[in-house]
Amino acid sequence: xxxxxxxxxxxxxxxxxxxxxxxxxxxxxxxxxxxxxxxxxxxxxxxxxxxxxxxxxxxxxxxxxxxxxxxxxxxxxxxxxxxxxxxxxxxxxxxxxxxxxxxxxxxxxxxxxxxxx
Length: 117
Prior knowledge:
The protein has one helix at 88-93; strands at residues 2-3, 19-20, 31-39, 42-51, 66-73. With 117 residues, it is mostly beta strands. It has one domain (2-107). The strands form 2 sheets. The chain has a 3-stranded antiparallel sheet, with no helix packed on it. It starts with a strand and ends in a 24-residue tail after the last helix. 1% of the residues are buried.
């Protein structure tokens, strides 16, 4: 077990609000999630594409060639999508009124030379 944030020494102190149990987490590198599995009103897993291994260095686009499919099920699913920044339609739809008119051109993502692939 480990605490996610730095700060105090227990969940009552500054920071350290979420307990992490690494034995229950699954890390699947080169796995692209294409679908959330929804049963009733709960997300119970994910399905997607396994991408071929890549030794591309940082800043070089990695292969997106599919080599298989996968399905993982769990009692809890954490979606780490990076927000809506990559979906320009959602950005426009949710544009804050305080920021005025939505720009005609929106920049999203990063150039390949800074992408870890």
